[in-house]
Structures are given as C-alpha cells and as structure tokens.
Amino acid sequence: MQYFSTNNPEHKVSLSQAVIKGLAPDNGLYMPERIPVLPKELIESFSEKGFQEIGYAVIGALFSEDLSKSQIKELVDHTLTFDAPIVQVEEDIYSLELFHGPTLAFKDFGARFCSKLMSMLQVKDEKTVRVLVATSGDTGSAVANGFLGVDGVEVIILFPKGKVSLLQEKQFTTLGQNITALEVDGVFDDCQTLVKQAFLDPELNEKLLLTSANSINIARWIPQCLYYFYAFSRLPKTGKKVVFAVPSGNFGNIGAGILAQRMGLPIDHFVAATNVNKVVPDYLRGDAFAAKPSIQTVSNSMDVGNPSNFPRLLSLYGNDESLFREKVRGYFYSDEETVQAIQAVKPKGYTLDPHGAVGYLGLKDFMSENPGYVGVFLETAHPGKFRDVVEDALDEELVLPERLAAFLEGEKNVIPMGKSFEEFKGFLEGLDS
Ligand SMILES: *Cc1c(COP(=O)(O)O)cnc(C)c1O
Q1: Which residue intervals define the domain Threonine synthase N-terminal in the entry (predicted)?
Q2: N or C: which end of the chain has fewer CB within 10 A?
Q3: Domains in the chain, please, with CATH?
C-alpha cells in the first residue's frame, strides 16, 4: 500500500519511506491511499477475541502488502503488552484506561509500535536511524521507553531545562543505552525549532538518517486505532448508539478513532474535548481554522494552539467540512471546570486525571444534549502523572504506581545544550565520527 501527502494526493511513497521520513517533503501528513473496511462479522467476532488477536486482524488489513504475517504478529505482540480495560464510572458511561503501559500515558501504544516498525523497515547495513524528539513531557518519556534497546535506532530527546516535571524528566534522563537527553537552556519552542532546523539542514541530512517520532508519523498514529476496536468489543450489547469522547491536543488520538470508524467500526459519534486551547471546537462550531499561540493549563499535554493532525481529520472525511462538522462535536473547558470534574467524579469511586476529566465533561455534555447513547471517554494518563493538580483538587495524597515510583530512583544523565543551532548541529555531526 502507498501513502499520499495531505498536501498533494499525487505525491505517494511506500510504507517504509512514510515511516522513515515522518513528514512529507511538502509539509503534508501521510495517509493510507485506501482505507480497508473490515467485514461486519469479523468486527462482531472481536468480542470473543483477545486484544492481540484483534490487533492482528486490524493491522493485517492495513499492512499485509508490506509485512509478512509473522512480522505483523511480532509488531502487535511487542506493542500490546499491557491491557486497556474499560471501567464503568456511571450508568452508560465508561472510562477507557490507556495508562497501563510503561510510562502511564496512551502515547506508549504509538511509541512502542513506531520503534518496532522502524527497526523492521530499516534496510540492513543502512545508517543508524536517529530519532529526534522535542518534548514538554509525555512524548519524551513514551518515545524513550518505546525505543530503549532497539537495534539500529538512537533517540535524541531535547527538553527545556527546568520546565518539565521531575517525574517526567526522570522517565527519559535515567535510561542510558540508545537514549540521549539534551537539556536545552530555553523553552519548549526552542527545542522544537532546533529539531525542525536539523530536518531542514541539507548537510546534516546528507550525513545522517534523521527522523521524527511525534504523532505526525503514521507509525505512531495508526496503532492508536486498535484500542477503539478493543473497547467497542467489550461494551455491553445494549443496542444503544455509541459515542467516544477524546481529550485532544494535537488530534492524533481522535483521528485514529475516526480511522477505526472508517474501517467499519460502528461508532456513531465523536466528541473532541479540549481545554481553553479550543481552535478545533471553534472550527467545529463554524469558524475558519485559525492557529493560535498556546495557553498553559492544568491539562498541559493538550496545550496546543496549532493541532498538527488537523489535515488528517479533514482527509478522513474526504475533505468535506460539513460532514466533519456533523460527525464530530467539539467542547472546551476551563481549568476550574476540569478541577470540579475531578472532584465530582471522586465520590463515584473513580479518580480522573486532568485530561480524562476534560474528556468526561465533553461526554456528559454530549449525552445530555443527545439522550440514548452509551459513551466512552478516553483516560489518557494515570492521575499520578499529574499528581500536583489531582492532589490539590482532592486534598489527599495519591499512591504512585510502582512503575512511576521506580523511575524516581534512577540517576539523571544529560548533555547541556544552548539554543543556537550551530551548537546542536556540531553535536549531531560528532555522532558518527
Ligand atoms: C498527548 C496527550 C493528549 C493529547 O493527545 P493528541 O493525540 O495530541 O490529541 C491527551 N492526554 C494526554 C495525557 C497526553 O499525553
């Protein structure tokens, strides 16, 4: 199967080029040229199948022309080493818990799949793949842990000095092996600028094989459709219509849900829930799409003013804006409302993280306007990852899962870096000599 650029449907590349390049040269996002539709009986049979088995069927439908059966199995087995259970929170409302992976956020799914696929597609004797990532927290930890120890791949993480929580920092600065962390004397935007400059520098790209592992890469984006199939298969068969609410920032996660829907999964509606970074909810209510500077909130992994996956969503609806606006409902919430949701749900016996809380609020609003649905909101991170906000909201101490606590023991190891491109380029050039 080939992949086209959202900026030019005539520009098509192979799976391996799309994965290794990340972004199309015309700045577009890669999309599969055909979206396979799974037979209805197959989707119905998922309720008797395990997560991995569902994964073989879905990934097989997308990648069988490019990968062997055993490669597909290896890829899915490597990705799905932890569960994604649905937990009932209220009548007809379920939380899809995506935080049972190594770094306790949903990005573990995409990062694990991406690392395995990159190493599979890498031609023998080719240069080492250098994955450059700028992070403000969760992406760095998921990518570092996903790529740890993967042959032929080196990960270089750029993070802003003093701007990342201790817990997040420990998750990518203590690993060693093929993971290098650069502590940049600047803010997140400086890190992102350095990475972009490196991708555009002809001399560097002549010498090194550089790629990106953020959610614009199809290898991180596509596998996220798996847990929609799995969650749907575990819902009680009530005959009611199903809505999924997705707390969104760059809109990769919700885009993967729409991909699952286009592959035949009978999801009736999507809710795009955001914090006050509400470019997409504004668009869905009729405004033109207009990127804005991002605003800091308590759900900081969604503080995105220019959602990079937006063209992908439009493409999934055949670039039909009115269809897109009809099928996806947008809502946004303030920090105050987010904290109140965490407090209101606690007595029901469930602890939300600030991102899941935004998803929950969106689901509640949609369901009160549209009775008769069963709803699922995505719980994208463990509340312990956003300990300060959740502990403040609930006025009690959270018990950290062992995996999180274990990271705190490791020793931080970083290379200090200024924000000039010359210094960063010099560092990269030194890698192969
Ligand atoms: C990255 C992230 C999001 C946003 O996901 P997108 O795919 O960028 O929309 C939401 N919640 C958490 C916890 C995240 O880390």
Answers
A1: 2-79
A2: C
A3: 83-106+221-394 (3.40.50.1100), 108-216+410-429 (3.40.50.1100)
**pLDDT tens digits, 389-401:** 999 999 999 988 8
Residue 124 falls in the annotated catalytic set = no
375, two tokens: 């709803």
Average of per-residue pLDDT across 109-131: 85
**Helix/strand/coil for 79:** helix
CB 218 within 8 A of CB 113: no
Indicate which residue's Cα is closest to atom 2 of ligand 1: 301
- The count of other CB atoms within 10 Å of the CB of residue 412 is 12
**Ligand 1 site: residues with CB under 6 angstroms?**
105, 107, 138, 215, 247-253, 301-302, 355, 380-381
CA-based torsion, 212, 215, 218, 222: positive or negative = positive
CB atoms near residue 131 (< 10 Å):
27
Do 377 and 356 touch, CB atoms closer than 8 A?
yes
Q: How far apart are CA 71 and CA 60, in angstroms?
A: 10
Predicted pLDDT of residue 402 = 85
pLDDT of residue 190: 85
pTM: 0.93
Dump the DSSP string for 286-301.
Answer: TPPP--------SSGG
Q: Of ligand 1's atoms, which has the minimum distance to the CA of residue 247? A: 10
139 C-alpha to ligand 1 centroid (Å):
9
- pLDDT, tens digit, 9 for 90 and up, residues 195-248: 888 988 889 988 998 888 887 899 999 999 999 999 999 999 999 999 999 999
Q: What proportion of the chain, given as a percentage, has pLDDT over 70?
A: 99
